[in-house]
Specification:
This protein is mainly alpha-helical. The protein has a two-stranded antiparallel ribbon with strand order 1-2. The longest helix is centred in the last third of the chain and has 24 residues.
Length: 134
Amino acid sequence: MRMLSLLASLLLASCLSWVSGFDEVSYRNLTDLKAETLIRLERCVEHKGATVADLPSYDALYIQTAKAREYELGKKANSDTAAQLAILTGEVKQIGDRLRAKSSLSETYCELKAKSVRKAFDIAISTEAGKQRR
């Protein structure tokens, strides 16, 4: 019985190491980036669109999101959050790319992108929040 208990403990411990634990830095990066990205998109809606003058702020968001992704890639057993940040990095990059290509963003585009980005951030944040605190 003792051996079985030890075996079960070892198995459980090995399973837990397949997924990284909760990381306060990751959680803060995600929540900060969500707020900054949504504020920028809400301003776009309020101003009935965005112009190339807004490009530096979208590029800055892209850089911050890419940095957060690199942080996640550097952690062991963290493919879940890293994959979600890859999606978010792509979403944020699309905004700047579209603005560069079209010289403006419509109010409708910003509204739809805000919904998409909010959902993606919510998934990433809930994934990180659901991890075991160590």
